[in-house]
């Protein structure tokens, strides 16, 4: 719930920050601005306060945005934060093999006690007897 509120405020601050940045006048700095703008007079003396207001509001909105993003990280509902990873909680045993050693095949139960090669068959359980 708190995360949703913070996320809504972040979106609102983002929109305001975009508007404030787009309203700012160009600084006339850079490759072409420094060469061509050097000859202009002091026209726009009244626009200086507007530029200061937009600059300060950009700084404030950016700081609020950063603070809300950090706060949102702590407000995320993690649902009890599991102590095990997803692999550990799956219950599948992890075996490590070294080199080119083959993993042993799982034991299969045979329906008959004899084998085709004539050797002794090892079974873990004897065949069931019917009454």
Fold topology:
Layout lengths: L1 H22 L7 H6 L10 H29 L10 H4 L42
Helix pairs in contact: 1-3
Plain-language structure description:
This protein is an all-alpha fold. The chain has a domain of 53 residues. Helices cover 47% and strands 0% of the residues. Helix 1 packs antiparallel against helix 3. The protein is elongated, with a radius of gyration of 36 Å.
Radius of gyration: 36 Å
**Portion in strands:** under 5%
Number of strands: 0
The largest β sheet comes out as: none
**Total DSSP helices:** 4
The shape is elongated
Order of helices and strands: HHHH
Structural class: mainly alpha
Quaternary = single chain
* Poorly predicted regions: none
Distance between the termini: 65 Å
Portion in helices: 40-55%
Query: Mean pLDDT score, rounded?
Result: 73
Short description:
By secondary structure, the chain is mainly α.
List keywords for this structure.
mainly alpha; elongated
